Amino acid sequence: MKLPWTRLRELGIVGMNQRNAEFIMPYNERRYYPLVDNKIITKQRAIEKHIPVPELYGHIELEHQAAHLPSLLAPYSEFVIKPANGSGGNGIMVIAGKTASGHFRRSNDNLVNLDEIKHHISNILSGMYSLGGETDSAIIEYRVKFDPCFENVSFKGVPDVRLIVFRGIPLFAMIRLPTRHSDGRANLHQGAVGVGIDMGSGRTNYGVMHSRPIKEHPDTGFPLAGIQIPEWDRILEMAATCYELAPLGYLGVDLVLDRDRGPMMLELNARPGLAIQIANGQGLEPILKYAQTLGTIPASAKRRVQIGKEIRHKFSREPA
User: Fold this and answer.
1) Does domain 5-52+146-314 have CATH number 3.40.50.1100?
2) What is the mean pLDDT of residues 2-16?
3) Which of 25, 66, 137, 178 is most exposed by smallest CB count within 10 Å?
């Protein structure tokens, strides 16, 4: 049953209109949007700030460059192809291996050949998956292998950590877990599971799927609560540092935990969604409004992390 609007207001749930009017428009200057909308620019700026990112294998901007795919892909049996200006996980092709016959195996175990990969890249270049449908470019990069802590709560995909960073302060976090229904993608709209993360300890505490509370992963049956996210303080500090890549006051930061390389920044979002409230069982409004009242924000990312933990502790309560 859906909660009445008055009850949502009591819980401090922020809706899309309020998010846009009170937090995005006043704090996110449009001139900075290209810094996060274009994944190549974001990746380059992250490298300059010494923030780990998945290694770039290739960048295809024009159709004729696809002719070089055989030599470009020859060294790699695993990789990810994605649109530079895509959103919502659309247009991402994950290659998990290569067969003896030269076919490529996708993460869902389907096989594709080189011509099919070229066709997919052509669709990306045409703007099929880009923001606004404008022409795009294709990124080919390192395929992340998820940390073993997610072995029992993920289905054929890589979980990612979404954080809301407001005025440079990390304030909310959740882990997005792929499911069979989401076809191995960590996208809540496509059926992934969102699980809130306690900002102080880095432990998971509350799961949702399609906006409904759940306690176990739908495909594995393992509990969602009590998972300790490795290197939690490092993750928070990386998220806080991302504010320096794109000075947007209301920022979504997506990170992944690689089993060999540790935390890496995946992408940034100038218009992060609001499902993180449901995953945490707590509304954004009181916490964001309190953060609005703060004076000068420290330049130190480490100090901003500490402030975020203090704010969340101040407003801590059991999930609704």
Assistant:
1) no
2) 71
3) 25
